[in-house]
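Give me structure tokens for this 214-residue protein.
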Amino acid sequence: MLQPYKTIYGPGQDEVVIQRSRFIGYALPVATEDEALAFIETIRKKHWDAAHNVWAYVIGIDGRLQRCSDDGEPQGTAGRPALEVIHKEGLVDVALVITRYFGGIKLGAGGLVRAYTQGAKIGLTAGRIIQRQPYASYLLETDYSMIGRFQREFEQRDYRIQNVSYADKVRFSVLVPMEERECFHELVTELTAGQDSPVAGDDTYVNFENGKML
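Here you go.
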């Protein structure tokens, strides 16, 4: 059964200058370690002339796979802080790279931790943090006279209509929150007096940002 989780919506990039050093935060949603490592390598090649390309990633809904690297910065001042940002946000299936161009001023251990923490945060924020909620999928076929009523009732209940097609009847799919499945069946039976029956499809995810469905 699908489980809810938090990740980012897409690639993120932002930068900040701290004590003349330039920190560029990159973030990417990833599903596998290979994807994370390929992303890290891409940023390394792009910024081959940077002082450091610090990275971290967490993969799996249970966070079972997590790695980080200081990439030459003092131990524990870069990769670990970036990884901690991912943990504090409760994110999974995400990779970070924070690129640093040294500006000539040493930041000290505490300064480095703060700088890489900020670099991680701005990268994730640019990637848009989202909640992925599991939804049940159904296929419905109904008379043209019913489609307007279905739309009104479904909109009030956070059910999402998709892939509408018109032939002898109106055919469409509906995404329903997992906890609403029984209510959905009861509603369809009530609206159609038992004439229409939803056909279950594959469960899927719906993305939410700040509580709003995307």
